[in-house]
Amino acid sequence: MAKLGEDEASEAAAAAANSAVCPVDDDTAGVCAVCGDKFDKFFDSEREAWMYRGAVRHNGSIYHPACLDDAEKVDVRRTLHLYGL
Ligand SMILES: [Zn+2]
After folding, report:
1. What are the sequence ranges of the domains in the chain?
2. pLDDT digits (tens, 9 = 90+) for 23-69
3. What is the pTM of this model?
4. d(CA 69, ligand 1 centre) in Å
């Protein structure tokens, strides 16, 4: 497989962001810890659980992947990998 160019890498990151979900729980208010936007909830029929769409969990808070990237200066794709996404 060819090495990812910059365009392909950012497309992969965007796809990862779109598929990022994390379970709804009572610890978080359902808002991004960085920008404060509310996440959409949806019922994941495969997991049979309510999930936040486009959210990643990190240190007990939830973030947009891009916001977490800004906040932590980490590679968002590596972060997603940590969460098995
Ligand atoms: Zn955010």
Report:
1. 11-82
2. 998 767 899 999 999 999 999 999 899 999 999 998 889 999 999 88
3. 0.61
4. 10
